[in-house]
Amino acid sequence: MTYSLKAVVLRDRKIVAISGTDRVKFLQGLTTNDIRRLAPDKALYAGFLTGQGKLLCDAFVMQDGDRILIDIATGLVEDFVKRLSAFKLRAAVEIGEAAPALAVAAVWGPGATARLELDSAEGIVGNSALAKAHLAFVDPRIAALGARLIYPADVPIEAELARLGFASATAAHYAEHRLALGIADTAEIGGEVCYPLEANFEMLHGVDFKKGCYLGQELTARMKLKGELRKRILPVSSSALLPTAGTTVTADGTQLGPLIAASGRRGLALLRLDRLADAREDSIRVQDVPINIHWPDWLPR
């Protein structure tokens, strides 16, 4: 077994299906990304916003024959379906959990996408080496995250992944991998915590500024046009265990913003950029824990 390759079933994710002749037009008016770019070989990362432009949730969007599949947090499915149904009006669309049920897994590690016989570019969908996978695609945010698999929920995908050399991992292992790369997920950025640009959607290929109108588009476009981004999610680390999410990051008594994720010695914080620029590096801490702020390679200053 190649233990550098890891796989986990993401039990906190479910698949919603949208079908009907108006499915593309319908979703185009509700998401931050350009749904017209979906193709059999292209998956997208996107956000669903409030009318005021704040993130309700992020999601992965895939074309699957005559329907569109949405990989979304399990706890949001019921409200998500209700919300989308409220915008349906006379649109020829059907919205609900995929039937038969589909599940989600993630794989990562050096050569993980190649082991699945996938191209390495973000969002590429391919014919996976896993015969039982329904869809397999490289994570559309950054390729270093690995790949996601959509498969029938009643299939024991772990055994097939093990035969390809993937060691079974836990959700905590995947969170550590994600946080090490500085990537936030639904639990940290959903529920109107922040705006999509604060969650680095532009660099994570999650927003299209040329697609035209969608719910929450006006404020998103204004923030981009006027450079009004005051906060940004940044990865943090410490030599000691971090406090729980929600604890405030400070510098010499000045509040920089909340810690929004913590796993061991790594986490994410939603920080005021102006205050961070004025802060001494050795003064930044969470409670009594000194921390370091990082700018990942994929995130320009």
How would you describe the overall organization of this protein?
This protein has 301 residues and is an alpha+beta fold. The chain has two domains: 6-180, Gyrase A, domain 2 (2-Layer Sandwich), CATH 3.30.1360.120; 230-296, Aminomethyltransferase beta-barrel domains (Elongation Factor Tu (Ef-tu), domain 3). 19% of the residues lie in helices and 31% in strands. The chain is built from eight helices and 18 strands. The chain has helices at residues 23-28, 77-86, 112-115, 157-163, 171-180, 186-189, 217-226, 273-278, and strands spanning 6-9, 13-19, 44-49, 55-64, 67-73, 94-97, 102-108, 125-126, 135-138, 147-152, 167-168, 231-237, 248-251, 254-263, 266-272, 284-286, 289-290, 292-293. The chain has a seven-stranded antiparallel beta sheet. The chain has a six-stranded mixed beta sheet with strand order 8-9-10-7-1-11, sandwiched between helices. A five-stranded antiparallel beta sheet has the order 3-4-5-2-6. Strand 16 and strand 17 (289-290) form a beta hairpin. The longest helix has 10 residues, at 77-86. The mean pLDDT is 95.
CATH class of the largest domain: Alpha Beta
Q: Which H/E pattern describes the elements?
A: EEHEEEHEEHEEEHEHHHEEEEHEEE
For the sheet with most strands, the description reads: 7 strands, antiparallel
Number of helical segments? Answer: 8
CATH topology heading of the largest domain? Gyrase A, domain 2
Rg calculated over all Cα atoms: 19 Å
- The low-confidence parts are none
Morphology? globular
Number of domains: 2
